[in-house]
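Example record for the data management plan.
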Amino acid sequence: MKTLILLLGLMLAGCAPKPMPPGEASWYGPGFRGKKTASGDTFWPGLRRTAAHRTLPFGTVVKVQRTDTGQSVRVVINDRGPFAKGRVIDLSKRAARRIDLVEKGHAPVTLLVVGCKERYRRRHKNHC
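Corresponding structural encoding:
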C-alpha cells in the first residue's frame, strides 16, 4: 500500500519511476574533492551520495542497484560523466561504499529514476 501511494505521488508530481538501461557503475573522487561539479555543487565524495550521469537532469534521484548482489543506494545526479566506455553512472565514494563498490571499482547495475530534489529547480535549466 505504501509503495502504491509513493508511486501515485511521484506520477502526479511528474516524476514517475523510470527504469534505465542496465550497465556498469564505477566510482570517482580522487583529485576532484572540493572542486565544482557540472551542476555547480562542491564535490565532497566522502560526505554525500551523489553521482555523475551523461544525460539525466541535475537533481534527479536515482536508485542504483547492483545486479550481482542486490545491494542498492539512492543518489542525486549533480555531475556529468562517466567518461569510461561501457559505464552508465559514476558514484561518489560514499555512495560506492554503500553498495561495496570501492574495492572492485565497478559492478553491473540497474538504474531507476525515483524522484527529484526540488532545490535544483531554482538553480538550473537542466533540472528534473
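Summary line stored alongside the record: Residues 3-13 have pLDDT under 50 and may be disordered.
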